[in-house]
Amino acid sequence: MKARVYVMPKAGVLDPQGKAIGNALEGLGFGGVRDVRAGKVIELDLLETDPARAKQAAEDMARKLLANTVIESFRVEII
Amino acid sequence: MKARVYVMPKAGVLDPQGKAIGNALEGLGFGGVRDVRAGKVIELDLLETDPARAKQAAEDMARKLLANTVIESFRVEII
After folding, report:
1. Per the structure, how many domains does chain B have?
2. Please, which of A25, A65, A67, B50 could form a disulfide with A30 given CB 3.0 to 4.6 Å?
3. pLDDT (tens digit per residue) in B46-64
4. Is A61 helix (H, G, I), strand (E, B) or coil?
5. Is B44 within 8 Å of A36 when comparing Cβ atoms?
6. Which residue, among B77, B76, B79, B75, has the nearest Cα to B8 in the 3D structure?
7. Which domain does A16 fall in, by range?
């Protein structure tokens, strides 16, 4: 069972990587970019075959390691 | 219009960040993790209001800056 964990900086948290990408896009001539936020996606290949338990396991992993829940929010998707 | 660009290492490309996350998860006692791949997600807030043109613009940005298409694949989603 595969799970995808999306980790994004929370609204209001400064995102220097996103800002840098935004500036670089502008420098390359891409206009019309209002805002850029940069996050991570982690694809987990789990032995677990039950979707509910796989989602629970991925959420535990996100809380303990993959996301810093003080400044980042995460979302788990079973695929 | 918002667009999300997902960038993942291509299959077969070495992913040291994913490997490190896999080792860390094992060290934390999470068993049953067969494989981990780490990628990026970039959320773009575009002035463009037409979904097809916004998707086209995001794909152009991905090809020119956000993804290294030699070793990474990308996918654009309009949200």
Report:
1. 1
2. A25
3. 999 999 999 999 999 999 9
4. helix
5. yes
6. B75
7. 2-78
Q: How far does CA B61 lie from the centroid of its chain? A: 13
Q: What is the pLDDT, as a whole number, of residue A35?
A: 96
- Chain B residues with CB-CB distance to A54 below 8 A: none
Instruction: Name the pLDDT band for A48 (thresholds 50, 70, 90).
Output: very high
Distance CA A53, CA A26 (A): 44
Nearest to B42 among A21, A28, A45 (CB): A21
Q: What is the pLDDT along chain B (79 residues), one digit of tens a residue?
A: 999 999 999 999 999 999 999 999 999 999 999 999 999 999 999 999 999 999 999 999 999 999 999 999 999 999 9
Q: What is the CATH number of the domain that holds B33?
A: 3.30.1280.10
Assigned token pair, A21: 């990408």
